[in-house]
Design goal:
2 domains, 10 strands, single chain, alpha+beta
């Protein structure tokens, strides 16, 4: 029989693996290149890359529990970005949160991907809905795998279809809007407002929660054209709110589905993010299929386009 210490150690080891995979999924969804976890004697570790820069993330398991360590140059911008992202995740769950009883939450996905659509989703929540969502383990889409996102999104659509609004802007339309609006935030403001308006017409909830991406007065100016008498919570990391987390899962699932579909059509694995690998794939598509095909797959204002 296994000793209780051995069982406990195995449990901690699995928790460490789960933790590093969670971080890995989160970082990959943000566009970072992260290799597969490697098991050492007392920890799991991954290498996080951007261009020629590398950082090592290690999750230790031992008598004192789980410990996460980031190894690299703490003065580099790359280190600071990754450290900020991971520190928020480490502290995230300990924050107390008071959600409105009923509200509309919205979030977006795809804005950091050179390929693919920009998707904004809104989700209408009340007390009964939030209680049901607990059983689906709703959380920030950056924390869960693509397969889990797809499964959870399917459940959300099956059970709460009338509470979901989606604005999916494919690259061709996105590029037209960018030519008109001249910047990404203006497109996001337009899309968030449209999705929220669609649900507000049905549910009339006065509380609105949005993951912060711009100054509050800018989003209010657009919302004021569509909705009267509302209270806006515009906050960073708004995926703490169940409705925003659900919206983020729906939005990310649409992006994932687009990548799967287009990758199958082209017989080329289209990468997420905007790394050097993305440039190589875009150049290959340009050479094989031409500029017209490429322009319907990418966001033209990205620096990647100039690089190819």
């Amino acid at each position: 029989m296994q000793s209780s210490f051995h069982k406990e150690n195995l449990s901690l080891e699995q928790k460490a693996l789960d933790e590093i995979n969670k971080f890995r999924n989160q970082l990959q969804n943000e566009g970072y290149i992260v290799d597969e976890p490697t098991k050492k004697q007392y920890n799991y570790e991954v290498i996080i890359s951007r261009g020629k820069e590398n950082i090592k993330l290690m999750v230790y398991f031992g008598k004192k529990g789980i410990k996460t360590v980031l190894q690299g140059n703490p003065n580099s911008e790359f280190y600071k970005q990754v450290d900020s992202l991971l520190n928020f995740k480490l502290n995230f769950q300990s924050e107390e949160l008071s959600e409105p009883e009923s509200y509309i939450g919205s979030d977006e996905s795809g804005k950091g991907d050179f390929f693919g659509p920009l998707v904004v989703s809104a989700f209408a929540v009340d007390y009964a809905t939030r209680e049901k969502l607990k059983y689906l383990n709703i959380k920030d889409s950056k924390e869960i795998s693509d397969n889990e996102i797809s499964k959870t999104a399917s459940e959300l659509i099956k059970k709460f279809k009338d509470r979901i609004a989606v604005i999916e802007i494919h690259p061709k339309k996105y590029n037209e809007l960018y030519d008109s609006f001249k910047n990404l935030n203006s497109i996001l403001i337009w899309a968030h407002s449209r999705a929220i308006e669609e649900l507000h017409k049905k549910f009339h909830y006065s509380q609105i929660v949005i993951d912060k991406f711009c100054a509050e007065d800018l989003i209010r100016t657009e919302l004021n054209k569509k909705i009267n008498d509302y209270d806006l919570i515009l906050t960073e990391k708004a995926e703490r709110f169940t409705g925003v987390a659900a919206a983020s899962i729906i939005a990310r699932s649409r992006v994932i589905n687009w990548f799967k579909k287009k990758s199958a059509e082209l017989k080329i694995d289209l990468p997420l993010g905007s790394s050097e690998k993305v440039n190589d794939v875009a150049s290959h598509i340009k050479n094989k299929f031409g500029n017209d095909v490429l322009s319907e797959l990418i966001k033209l204002h990205f620096k990647n386009f100039k690089n190819i």
